[in-house]
């Protein structure tokens, strides 16, 4: 990269990292490495967040995350984790319908699962 491009990328850095070309080049290279790494880590973090939200929504109705996901897959309901977490947050009745379907498949009544979880 040319000097102009490096200093443009280093804009906003502290100390000599923003105006001294040697220091700026090192800092810019390192920042690009961080950006590359964290683009992948962001996907990992989002998936973990979706799983936590689905688990919280499912446990309100007495079902664990793992049993909910295995029940949905055995009934051939193919919703990804992003959409399930959106349902758990913004459409609780639709999410409850999915949970009730899994509960019925397991042979329990919808009210029994929550009572069983509380005990």
From TrEMBL:
InterPro entries: Ribosomal_bL20 (IPR005813), Ribosomal_protein_bL20_C (IPR035566). GO terms for molecular function: rRNA binding; structural constituent of ribosome. One of its GO terms (biological process) is translation. It comes from the Eukaryota. Keywords: Ribonucleoprotein, Ribosomal protein, RNA-binding, rRNA-binding. GO terms for cellular component: ribonucleoprotein complex; ribosome. The keyword Ribosomal protein applies. Signal peptide: none annotated. SUPFAM superfamilies: Ribosomal protein L20 (SSF74731). CDD domains: Ribosomal_L20. The keyword Secreted does not apply. Pfam families: Ribosomal_L20. PANTHER family: 39S RIBOSOMAL PROTEIN L20. Binds directly to 23S ribosomal RNA and is necessary for the in vitro assembly process of the 50S ribosomal subunit. It is not involved in the protein synthesizing functions of that subunit. Belongs to the bacterial ribosomal protein bL20 family. This is 50S ribosomal protein L20. It comes from Prototheca wickerhamii. The lineage of its organism: Eukaryota, Viridiplantae, Chlorophyta, core chlorophytes, Trebouxiophyceae.
């Amino acid at each position: 990269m040319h000097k102009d491009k490096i200093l443009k990328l280093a804009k906003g850095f502290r100390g000599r990292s923003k105006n001294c070309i040697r220091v700026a080049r090192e800092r810019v290279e390192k920042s690009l490495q961080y950006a590359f790494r964290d683009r992948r880590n962001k996907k990992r973090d989002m998936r973990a967040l979706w799983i936590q939200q689905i688990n919280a929504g499912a446990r309100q109705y007495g079902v664990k995350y793992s049993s909910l996901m295995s029940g949905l897959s055995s009934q051939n309901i193919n919703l990804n984790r992003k959409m399930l977490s959106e349902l758990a947050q913004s459409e609780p009745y639709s999410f409850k319908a999915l949970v009730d379907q899994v509960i019925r498949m397991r042979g329990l009544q919808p009210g029994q699962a929550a009572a069983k979880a509380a005990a």
